[in-house]
Amino acid sequence: MPYVPPARRGGTLIPLPPREGRIASLTYRDAGVDIDAGDALVRRIAPLARGTARPGADAALGGFGAFFDLKAAGFRDPVLVAATDGVGTKLELAKAAGRHDTIGIDLVAMCVNDLVVQGAEPLFFLDYFATGKLAVDEAADVVRGIARGCTESGCALIGGETAEMPGLYRPGDYDLAGFAVGAVERGQALTGAGVAAGDVLIGLAWDAPAPFAPDQGLAEALLTPTRLYVRSCLAALKAGGVKALAHITGGGLVENPPRVYPKTLAAEIDVRQWTLPPVFRWLAETGPVAAHELARTFNCGIGMLVVADPARADALLEAFAAAGETAYRIGRIVPRPDGGEAVVLQGLDSWPD
User: Fold this and answer.
1) How many Å separate Cα 43 from the centre of its chain?
2) Is the dihedral of CA 190, 191, 196, 197 positive or negative?
3) Is residue 120 over pLDDT 90?
4) CB 287 within 8 A of CB 301
5) How far apart are CA 311 and CA 52, in angstroms?
6) Could you read off the pLDDT of 48-94 as tens digits, one per residue?
């Protein structure tokens, strides 16, 4: 048996086993993490990130952190606003359908729409992509959607994390999270404090025309990405008359509106003022899902609720139309009696039940 010099560990001499009895050198790939695949993904997505560059950020990838210059973005005395979110079980639809190019738009929309309702302009976005085994083409499709969402909302994709963790995810699984930061000039944030009885409610359509149609597969219809309301809402804020904005996501038309007005007030919404999109009608009838449950779970075709000064309501409707939105006057703010509902839905009997 040949002599093997001892190794020193923590001040103690430890004899090594004979060379022929030692195991082969391990690599990160042996542990299930493919660094080469990660590098290939970075090369694929770097041009996508550069395409989202905006004043204040050059959207270059590769550093440990990313810088953003608020002054270069045109702000004088900004307050930062942050949001983080995911896309929930919609990921399962994307995986089942093998369609990964739009789910990133949903991820961005969930975050940046939550910024604009505070009156903030989205500035930059970071993503977190976690999987058991990295599939470069699939991941690149996801990031392509993220970059598209960022571009459409004027938000720079300045970084992110790709985590390959074998054993934590089933084969083919991945998870997504997004993080967005925006800014609003001090004193100009939307808080809902100025909302008053008599204010007009304007609903911005989730998508027009409706995403569900007989010539589409179910997964394709349900994968229609969340609408990005950033540019139209920022334009409306500049036009004046917007008192509050509510992003209608999980919790639907029942849980979300009360977040933007005082507890002494209620939103009176007439659901007959817009057409329930066919996808929600199908869910109601096939589920079956009762009308009120539909309204407290889904946006039912209204992705953004605007509380408007009555004197500016018509002008805002025109401004939203000019920005490419389908907008409806759907109700008003009313006094809320003690023990009364925060949202009063009128015309629910016109929906399937």
Assistant:
1) 25
2) positive
3) yes
4) no
5) 37
6) 999 999 999 976 666 788 889 999 999 999 999 999 999 999 999 99
DSSP 194: T
> Pairing between strand 121-131 and 174-185?
antiparallel
Q: What gap in Å lies between CA 344 and CA 325, rounded to an integer?
A: 25
H helices present in 117-190, as ranges: 136-152
Q: Two tokens at 95?
A: 């995986």
Please give the model's pTM, rounded to 2 decimal places.
0.87
DSSP for residue 166: B
User: pLDDT class for 132, splitting at 50, 70, 90?
Assistant: very high
CB atoms under 10 Å from CB of 328, counted, come to: 19
Please list the residues that pair with 300 across neighbouring strands.
none
In SS3 terms, 255-308 reads as: HCHHHHCCCCEEEEEEHHHCCCCHHHHHHHHHCCCCHHHHHCCCCCCEEEEEEE
CB contact at 8 A, 331 and 270: yes
- Cα-Cα-Cα-Cα torsion 32, 37, 42, 43, nearest 10 degrees, comes to 170
Q: What is the residue whose two structure tokens read 């000064």?
A: 309
Measured from the Cβ of residue 209, the count of other Cβ atoms closer than 10 Å reads 10
Which residues fall within 8 angstroms of residue 141, CB to CB, at 6 or more apart? Answer: 100, 101
Which segments of 76-166 does DSSP mark as H helices, in order?
A: 90-97, 103-116, 136-152
Sort 154 into a burial class: Cβ within 10 Å, 0-12 / 13-18 / 19+: middle
- Mapped onto helix, strand or coil, the DSSP state of residue 225 is coil
Cα–Cα distance measured from residue 70 to residue 349, given in angstroms and rounded to the nearest whole number? 50
Full set of structural domains in the chain with CATH? 35-185 (3.30.1330.10), 200-350 (3.90.650.10)
pLDDT surpassing 50 at residue 7: no
Contact 225, 105 (CB under 8 A): yes
H helix intervals, 153-277: 218-222, 230-239, 252-255
